[in-house]
Amino acid sequence: MASPMSAGSFLDRIRDEGVRVVEVGDWRHHNRNHKGPWGPVHGVMIHHTVTSGGALTVGLCREGREDLPGPLCHGVVTKDGVVHLVGYGRANHAGLGDDDVLRAVIAERALPHDNEANTDGNRHFYGFECENLGDGEDPWPEVQLDAIAKACAAICRFHGWTERSVIGHLEWQPGKVDPRGFTMSSLRGRVRELLK
């Protein structure tokens, strides 16, 4: 059981990993906490945005959509490898997912196939939206993949987690495909190397 780190620690830890960070508005107090608790936290969830263009992507993830209010994550990783902090606290990114997957993340063991949507993931995961069309063809620049891995490693290092605490949306909620264009095993491998 882990309490979320403070917003200041979140910012400092990501910067300490060597990632360029941009603070967007009053991100420290922009959240959905009025909809329910945030925490205990158990892992980091990665998404792709199905958007193109950094400014558009960051704005959408901060403000949300008509059917899904923002913030839609805690940080947006744009193609240039910059992490834009858009919210802190409960965010609309994970939705309902599989309780068996959550138990596996907590135990840091291999993930089972996600076949249920019965558990509130917004409560339990840090979330990063990553700028990409999500069509399997839009490239993932090395600088972006490096920033994603370093942001995940920063959180894992703070909480004493291994790379097994990093999951993709597609591993959490049936029917989701994100992130598409790289494998979560390859990302976890990058995080594992950073944590050595």
Keywords:
alpha/beta; 10 strands; 196 residues; two-stranded antiparallel ribbon; 6 helices; single chain; 6-stranded mixed sheet; Lysozyme-like
Description:
The protein is globular. The chain has one domain (7-195): 3-Layer(aba) Sandwich (Lysozyme-like), CATH 3.40.80.10. Helix 1 (7-16) packs across helix 4 (142-159) and helix 4 packs across helix 6 (184-195). Helices cover 32% and strands 16% of the residues. The two termini are 23 Å apart. It is built from six helices and ten strands. A hairpin with a 5-residue loop joins strand 5 and strand 6 (83-85). The protein has a six-stranded mixed β-sheet with strand order 1-6-5-9-2-10, sandwiched between helices. The protein is an alpha/beta fold and 196 residues long.
What's this entry about, in short?
One of its GO terms (biological process) is peptidoglycan catabolic process. This protein has six helices and ten strands. With 196 residues, it is α/β, with parallel strands linked by helices.
Content-based structural category: alpha/beta
Mean of all residue-level pLDDT scores: 97
CATH homolog superfamily: Peptidoglycan recognition protein-like
Would you identify the regions where 5 or more consecutive residues have pLDDT less than 50?
Answer: none
GO biological process, one term: peptidoglycan catabolic process
GO molecular function: N-acetylmuramoyl-L-alanine amidase activity
Protein name: N-acetylmuramoyl-L-alanine amidase
